[in-house]
Every structure is written in C-alpha cells, then in structure tokens.
Amino acid sequence: MYRIKKTVKLFQNKNKIKFIFMNIHQEITIKCNEVCRFILSLLAIGIVKSSLFHQVKKKYPKVSEQDINSFLKFLITNQIIEEFKESKYENSIVSRQVNFYSTIVPNSESMQDELSNKCVLILGLGGVGSWISYFLAQAGISHFIFVDSDKVENTNLGRQALYFKDDIGKYKVDVISNKLRKLNPNLIIEKHKFTVQSKEDFMKIKHIPDIVVNCLDEPNSYFTGTWVTNYYLGLDIPMINGIGYRGRTISLGLTTIPGKTICWNCANASYKNAIKGYVPILNHNPQAGVTSPLANFIGSIHAQEVINILCKELTPILTNRIGVIDFLTLDIKWYKLTINSTNCCPICRRRNNI
C-alpha cells in the first residue's frame, strides 16, 4: 500500500500543486492536471498499487500505465509518498517521535525499538533531573534508575517537573515514579534514597545502566562528576556530567563516551589544581537563581543528548567541548576541550589523540 507521507502537506491552485515537507522546511511546486489530482486523492487515504491503476484507468481510460508509473516514480523519488504498512507505534505516545525520525534515520521504528529497551540512570531529580526523566519517559524509555535523597519542598514547585502541593513531604523518587507510571504503566523503575558522597555509593545500585545522567549539584558538579566518572568509566558506561546554571548562564553538560572522548577529569584538570587541598562542605547548600522555563530548557537539551547517545544512528553533540548559553539572548559559546598530550589522564588512561 502506498500513501502520502504524514510529514508532507499539499496545497493546490488551478493548475499547480505545492508539496511542503514539514520536517525539513522544504517545498516542491509542480504543474498538475486533473489526473494527477485524482491520483493524489487516492494516495491521501492509502491504496495498493494495483487498485490505484484500476481506478485511474476506469476514470481516465486514455491515461497510459507508463504515465501513471512516471508520476508515482516522481512522488517516490522526492519522498512525497511511501510504501506503508501498519506501524505498531501508530497512535502510541511515541508515534510523532517515530514520524520525526523517519526523515533522519533509515528505519525510525527500529530506532524506537532500540531506545525503548534502554536503561537510564538519573542522579538527582531536581530542577534538571525531573524534567529529563519526564522527557525520556515521553520518548519511550522503559527502564529508569533514580537516585535522590530529597523530599519535595514548596520551593521545588516553581521549577521542577511533576511535583504538586499534595506531594510536599514525599520522597522525590516516589513521586516521580508514580507520576511516570501514569504515562506508562509498564515502566521498570529502580529507586534509591541515599545521598551520593563518594564513588563507592554507586555500588548500592544493582543494575548496570546504559547511560548515566548526572544532575547532582551537592556539594557541586565537579565533585559529583568526578565520582561518576571514577566509577562508571571503568564499566564502559556513557555519561553526561556538568549540567547546570548560574543565573542567566547555562552550562551544557559534557558527554563522555568511554575510550572515544575526553572525560570529566580531562576537562577539569585546571579546576582540580585550583581546589587542591580543599574539601567540600557537605552541609552547605548554595542556591543559584533559576526560572521554570530555564530549567525546562536545560532538561530538553540533555534529554535529546541522551537519545543521541543511546541510538547508534544518531550522533552526540556534547562531546569534547563545553557549551555556555546566555538564556536571555540565546547566544551560545563553545569551548573545545583538549589536554596536555604529554600527560595521561589518571581516570580514563588515555592520551589526547582525538
């Protein structure tokens, strides 16, 4: 069965048809007669090729099969129509996502199958982690590990996802888990309510995830990123560290692909030297200002990066560089990361040959 792609809009005037490709912002305009319009009307609802030929020949006996084939070839070549078979994702919560990736990867359904079977560890369910968990559940991730020792407070409601007044005083991992299961009752969720204070704490997590997303900000992102890197790099687990904000400035996280990219320790060698001899004050809780749209914005960027990492057809964009965004102007600056080629990173044991 052939049909016009859902990502294509059609407009017509007296003798022309305009095809607008919604996913890629392109268009094609062609001259179109009555026969072409009739063929397009059949393709709009979907029709098998033999039936299309039969109906066109019945209504327009003088039209040759060669002419019909020529028009169909044009429509196929320009990706206006597709050979259609019923999708298992039709009308599911990820149907539009499968549609989106259909113009980016060869088989968006296979990509969705791959994504749906992944396990994501999210450390911290606050202003960034809560949004990431929500976006990834919407994207079809079926297995989560959540780590957060905090309970919901009134001040959380203005910037964090899925928390409401009647959740105050409840553990965040419990609230998020319950809310996400309303979206997908079949979710597998492993919950932990401990405070991360060293890499050894990760030994409490039994399941090995496919990716680690570090949204912990206590004592700060440097220390938590170091703990995550020290533990999970040895397990060859991809990770994102350093997600954060300071007022209007957003720091995009650093993606580490073990054995292929710069790690958190490589990127922070100068910072490590600057704080040498200092230890974090664990009971001090500094708080940067933030708005709900800003937190949502950060969460969406990094949720997409998780998808980029987990799907082999896509490419991570936050490797070997740090991005800093001014939220009020949306100006972004990229800082390419390098390390001294004469030194060997004590964590990833890899010289700078990227």
From TrEMBL:
Keywords: Membrane, Transmembrane, Transmembrane helix. The chain crosses the membrane at residues 119-137. GO terms for biological process: cyclic threonylcarbamoyladenosine biosynthetic process. Residues 108-344 form the THIF-type NAD/FAD binding fold domain. Gene3D superfamilies: NAD(P)-binding Rossmann-like Domain. SUPFAM superfamilies: Activating enzymes of the ubiquitin-like proteins (SSF69572). GO terms for molecular function: tRNA threonylcarbamoyladenosine dehydratase; ubiquitin-like modifier activating enzyme activity. Pfam families: ThiF. This is THIF-type NAD/FAD binding fold domain-containing protein. It comes from Lactobacillus crispatus.
